[in-house]
Amino acid sequence: MTYVEFVDKTQVENICACLVRVPERVVLVGGDKKALPKLAKRYQSVLSERGHEVEFACCPVSRNKLENIVQKLSEIVEAYDDCVFDVTGGEDLMLVAVGIVRERYADKHIQLQRVNLYTNEVFDCDADGEVASGKVPALSVEENVRVYGGKVVFEHERKDTTYCWNMTEAFRDDIRAMWEICHNDHSRWNKQISTLRALSTCCAEGELHTAAPLCDVEIQLKKDEAPPLLWWEPLLMKLKSRGFITHYANDGATVEVAYRDAEIKRCLTKEGQVLEMKVYLEALECCDENGPAYNDVMTGVYIDWDGTLQQTSQGDTCNEIDVMMMYGVLPVFVSCKNGKVKMEELYKLNTVAERFGQAYARKVLVAPGIRGRAAVDLRERAEAMRIRVVDKLPDGSWDELMRSFRNTNV
Fold first, then answer.
1. pLDDT in tens, 385-396
2. At the N or C end, where does the chain have fewer CB atoms within 10 A?
3. For 336-374, b where at least 16 C-beta lie within 10 A, e where not — what string?
4. How far apart are CA 101 and CA 4, in angstroms?
């Protein structure tokens, strides 16, 4: 079987049919001669990692000349007897050419099909009542990023990138407990975490027992352009009583804080980390009548835009998405902000979602701390960018909220 794919800028449309019933070969038809081989290599690698060896061929056409497109498609049909034209993507003139070629080669019974990526169904488009395939398999977060030309970078490849959390049942309970403490006062939580982060920066990397003069911590806070020094004793005592902090001492000149383990320290030395972990956990555990609501969920997803990993980020275009979920082949991009939100955060979220999801991207800003006139302006801009803003979080089950992210922006 030979699939003929019409290259679309929404790149998941160029590979979705190949995921359903793996063909022997795929012919990519498009107007950008230089881009076609790069796309073929990218899609081939995604299929290969799934264990599917598919031959890819490129067919450049003159996108504004119908006669040229018809000629090129005719050559494909004459070269292969088992063509299936996938019309999920592609420009209008190319689809007109498909109709002409199918009529010209009526004796070959060329099949036409189209994939609805919202329902993951394949539909017959040639009126013979038959389709070459069935349901579309889901993509992982990493596969989705690769389809669009990027790469998820992990900490073993480059420092301060995607971290793989050890999501044991005990750690899940820890996340819930930290969130219960955090969500009672987002503002003071953030200020206290800023101070803990500054203290950690003053110490050796990876040190669980952190200690430094208060003056050094204040200097670091100023460097970070963070809120002033804060030691909120009730919060610290709650963290200590739950065992997240194993030691705390402050004599007015020097402060000491010790953490139970490295993952707890990660959560307590980054302002929005606990909110991210809460959203991540709820997405992992969210279910509907068919099972898990999302087939893949990641947090702290560090994306290298062109997939050419460098040892440093210098020269790379990179973004980090707080939480990313996959619903079949539809990506959901979530930005989590536990305190004030600058307008530029909307642009960051929109830019990466448009790049790695395009028309199918769902965009959500979870920001329980936004208030006042700034919140009104933020909402107006978010609506214009088709970003859903969630500022009220459930007291009980999050399942309904998390499931609703799948239909956001539709």
1. 999 999 889 988
2. C
3. bbbbbbeeebbeebbebbebbbbebbbbbbbbbbbeeee
4. 13
Other C-beta atoms lying within 10 Å of the C-beta of residue 332: 26
CA angle 58, 62, 67 (to 5 degrees): 110
Q: Which of 284, 386, 389, 275 is nearest to 326 (CA)?
A: 284
β-strand partners of 358: none
Q: What pTM was computed for the model?
A: 0.93
Report strand pairing: 296-304 vs 318-327: antiparallel
Amino acid at 209: H
Q: Which CATH architecture has domain 279-407?
A: 3-Layer(aba) Sandwich (3.40)
Q: If DSSP codes are grouped into helix, strand and coil, which group holds residue 389?
A: strand
Instruction: Give the domain ranges of the chain.
Output: 2-137, 169-268, 279-407
Would you identify the CATH topology of the domain 2-137? Rossmann fold (3.40.50)
The radius of gyration computed from the CA coordinates of the chain, to the nearest angstrom, equals 26
Per-residue tokens: 143 = 């596969």
202 pLDDT tier (thresholds 50, 70, 90): very high
pLDDT greater than 90 at residue 48: yes
Query: Do 376 and 408 touch, CB atoms closer than 8 A?
Result: no
What's the CA dihedral at 161, 385, 379, 271 to 10 degrees? 0
Range 169-268: architecture per CATH = Orthogonal Bundle (1.10)
